[in-house]
LysR family transcriptional regulator
Amino acid sequence: MDLVGACVAFVYVSERGSFTLGAAAARIPQPVASRRIGALERHLGGRLFDRSTRRATLTPFGRDMLPSARRLVALAEAMEHDAERARLAPLRLAVPDVCGTRELALLGAAALHQDVRLDLHPAPPRAREDLLRTRQVRASLAAVPADEAAWRVRLGLASVAEHHSAAVHLETLRVGRGDSEVRRRVWIQPEDDVPHIRDRVRRLGESVGLQPAQIAVASAFTTAAAHVLDSADLLLCSAAQAAELGLHWRPAGGIDPVRGYAVAAGEGEDAERIERDLAEGLAACLGADRGEEALR
């Protein structure tokens, strides 16, 4: 028996004093209201209405049962309201702040087609970790090594000057002892200030004789870009970022740095849904391919 449905019919009929009017108020046909109330009477073991009169008059048993029925109906309505609010609650997701506004907007639109309302929080890697740790977001795109990534972005070196070789080698930045030439630098943006990228670039620079200061970490992407646009310095970035800045991009010789991303979430269900339903939109935001496709 549909106990909630039967109690709804019972409450409305009792309030209206009529099976016909009560059924209309409950938005069900009158015969359905009668059947539900009859089933409720059999379930409870007593008559709820005195059917000897033209009005739907409560019996003493019915009057005793009415408060409980009202509480059950109110609880069911509250539960439906809570469920609707939960369905409409946005999924707060921390994303890299290198993602473009248009791409993020398209991701949000695509999510709506999957019945997901996204609340996006662009931030650099460490800030994304903090947002998830403090539960300010439900999920985050974490920066991870390439072999752990669901999405991957190849990185290379970009500069104002056009490169005539297939790759840019860091040893070309080396300056001889006593040389007065300004030392060119490689700028690392905050998105790549993570051990599996930053430390590899620094180790390579050290191995080819660069000074420590020639591998510089910028406080913001725009800061790194400004230095590169105003000098002969190099920017570690994706090909898409280089194109946006009008820079010439080549792979980095002797190293193949890759941004890797995976979904980190407080609930496994959130991570699964993001990777399943939003994979293509996230790949477009990151300028990435899924998994092994990025390295082919």
In short: The chain has eleven helices and 13 strands. The radius of gyration is 32 Å. The chain has three domains: 3-87, 90-149+259-295, 156-256. The longest helix spans residues 60-88.
